[in-house]
Amino acid sequence: MIISRLSYRAVFIILFSAVLTYGCARHAAPDQDGAAGAAVVDEGTSSADASALDQQPEKSASGAKKEAVDDDQALLDTALELTETAQEYWEDNDMDQAIESLDQAYALILTVPGNNPKLTQQKDDLRFMISKRIMELYASRQVAVKGNHNEIPRVVNAHVEREIQSFQTVERDFFLESYKRSGKYRGGMVKALKEAGLPEELSWLPLIESGFKIRALSRSRAFGLWQFIPSTGYKFGLKRNAWIDERLDPEKSTAAAIAYFKELHQMFGDWATVLAAYNCGEGSVARAIRISKVDYLDNFWDFYERLPRETARYFPRFLAVLAILKDPAQYGFTLDQPDQPLSYETCTVERPVHLKSVAQKLDVDLTDLTQLNPELRRDATPDVPYVLRVPPGKKELLTAELDKLPKWSPPKVEYVLHRVRRGETLSLIALRYRTSIQRILEANNIRSTRLLRVGQRLKIPMRNSTTAS
User: Fold this and answer.
1) Helix (H, G, I), strand (E, B), or coil: what is residue 271?
2) Which of 163, 201, 209, 282 is catalytic?
3) Class of domain 415-461
4) How many CA within 13 A on the CB side of residue 166?
5) Can you tell me the distance from the alpha carbon of 443 to that of 446, in angstroms, rounded to the nearest whole number?
6) Please, which of 23, 238, 333, 453 could form a disulfide with 233 given CB 3.0 to 4.6 Å?
7) Do residues 133 and 102 lie in contact, with contact meaning Cβ atoms separated by under 8 Å?
């Protein structure tokens, strides 16, 4: 059956909306419907006979139930195999067979009852995977019809000119400082993008995302050079725990950004829409596409005005950066030499040690050491083997002195939770709990008091918290 390009787009948006709806609800607790059963025993039956009657049917029912579960598990395993087969067909450009395999997989999971909590999550995960895969298939078909959208379209229209003017005036210092900082990290980004087959220009995206500040934090809790929120970072392999936050690691976060770019490009097919989705999320862009009813691949500049204001400025700002960097003199810029790339050696540390102790032992500046290891939330290595970065020429010395470094223990801090009410400020909250604003900021990883919002839950460190010896 031949489906028109617009039909593909309609199917794509419907499927995408379904996937997003499921994605938001998939972690809800599964239904656990059950019926209590009771054995009916004749009044004249002895207690021993009654016990035998109770035990025999229960044993038989248990065996039948186990067999049913095994059968259902086999169906789900087969559905998973069909989903993987569809991927192989897709890679061989056999779209019809890929869709047929996904249809068969979906039909199988529909035959599995929903009354077993153990299998319910597997069913939901497979539904999500199959729906997402079908969405990607139709998106790729749509792109194949339209042609090549692998290049970032460079234009300088009225929208882009407004952003250029902003960089020339009120944001001039920001632009120049960000460009200078870019030298520390951009070389590694360009290399990774080349290896992934993505446009090198994407390496300039952190200029508008974070100003190439490693610890940039947004109002939406996005963190790092590439501005990942915790959930998206976790989705693309960035770990976050009491010791580390990999969103702050330049190499790891760049790898995650590349994986996200690839997924978005597979969904939408062009870089203008991909960058809009990177900024405000796939859901917002999909809803805008559905509501606007325009061919966004051909008419992005009509479509983008229907996006949230911040996102509507995002792609023009990126194009403005590219235009200025292509010909700085044309736009009145003289660019200084960027900072030198960070160079380092690595050494595996088996136990928690504080970077201050390491810096003293190596006779290096603590700031330089923390800059090489930005993902360490406590400025200390975790309680598992950790690959620590040290300045060039210091690896052998650290290896020789590791056993002499004191083991570090994190502070023992007691917290209470506080939900922010309308009209409350950090100073009022700190006064109420007899603590300081700075301790609240540190406990919640907040960089600015302006980021406080109504309904936000704060961890309040108590005044009598003690430190481990």
Assistant:
1) helix
2) 209
3) alpha beta
4) 15
5) 8
6) 238
7) yes
**What CATH number should be reported for the domain whose range is 158-331?**
1.10.530.10
Number of H helices, E strands in the chain: 19, 4
- Whether 88 is a known active-site residue: answer no
Which regions of the chain carry the CATH code 3.10.350.10?
345-404, 415-461
Which three-class secondary structure string do you get for 226-250?
Answer: CCECHHHHHHCCCCECCCEEHHHCH
Give CA–CA dist 144/142, Å, rounded: 5
Query: What backbone phi and psi angles, to 5 degrees, belong to 155?
Result: -135, 155
Q: What is the CATH number of domain 345-404?
A: 3.10.350.10
- Give the pLDDT confidence score for residue 398 in this predicted structure: 95
pLDDT > 90? residue 98: no
Domain with CATH 1.10.530.10 in the chain: 158-331
**Which tokens hold the place of 159?**
């929208």
List Cβ neighbours of 132 (8 Å cut-off, separation of 6 or more).
19
- Topology of domain 1-25+72-147 in CATH is Four Helix Bundle (Hemerythrin (Met), subunit A) (1.20.120)
Q: How do residues 406-447 score in pLDDT, each as one tens digit?
A: 999 887 767 888 999 888 888 888 888 888 888 888 888 776
